Amino acid sequence: MKPGTWLDGNGTKMRIYISSSWKNRERVRALAMELRRGGHEVYDFTDPNCRSVPEIPPERFPEQFDPEEHIYREYINSVPYWRQAVEGNQQALNWCDAVVLLLPCGNDGHSDWAYGVGRGKLNVVVGQPKAGDRTPTHMWSDEILDSDDEVAAYFGNLHSTVQRLSTCCSAKKIK
User: Fold this and answer.
1) Triad 47, 51, 57: Cα angle to 5°
2) Interval 73-102 mean pLDDT
3) Which of 18, 50, 66, 124 is deepest in the core (most CB within 10 A)?
4) Residue range(s) defining the domain that contains residue 79
């Protein structure tokens, strides 16, 4: 992706997808509100106003997969809402310019983030994993921030960063 291709006309507003765990719903909502105050469009998977399909928080479907009791293919296809939710998230990920991954989170949050990385989206990892966890693929991120408080400032300062990158990258020739 060329620097600046994901910025709008004035170089400051972005479409941002927040990926995390349902357990972090209050953090996700607070960060979404903060980013919107900065003029960004935000997809917040916990906000029913952002979703085109019903919410599926884990407490709604509490039965966990157990290989002793389930065949995975049958288990994963047993709840039609899951396919709708995944497809809705995929559409939102295709729409966005940037993905923010709030840690700690599980497989679903990381899958959405990794999809964004693969699509060339600007991506930021925020927070700390659970004790004992580590995910070296977080080094794929464009930035790793320590706290939620740093995210709005990061996106607010992004325009000058992109201008600096554009100047730097256009001055170099790839051999």
Assistant:
1) 60
2) 92
3) 18
4) 15-171
Q: Would you give the DSSP letter of residue 75?
A: H
93: left (phi over 0), alpha (psi -120 to 50) or beta: alpha
Question: How many residues in the chain?
Answer: 175
Fill in the DSSP letter of residue 142.
S
Q: What angle do CA 76, 49, 62 make, to 5 degrees?
A: 30
On whether residue 131 sits in a domain, the answer given is yes
Rg (CA), the chain: 18
> Rounded to an integer, what distance in angstroms lies between the CA atom of residue 157 and that of residue 106?
29
Residue 127 inside a domain? The answer is yes
63 domain-assigned: yes
CATH of the domain at 132: 3.40.50
Rounded to an integer, what distance in angstroms lies between the CA atom of residue 77 and that of residue 74? 5
Residue 3 lies in a domain: no
Is the pLDDT confidence value at 173 over 70?
A: no
28 pLDDT band, cuts 50/70/90, is: very high
Token pair 């400051």 in the structure block, residue: 12
Number of domains in the chain: 1
Amino acid at 149: D
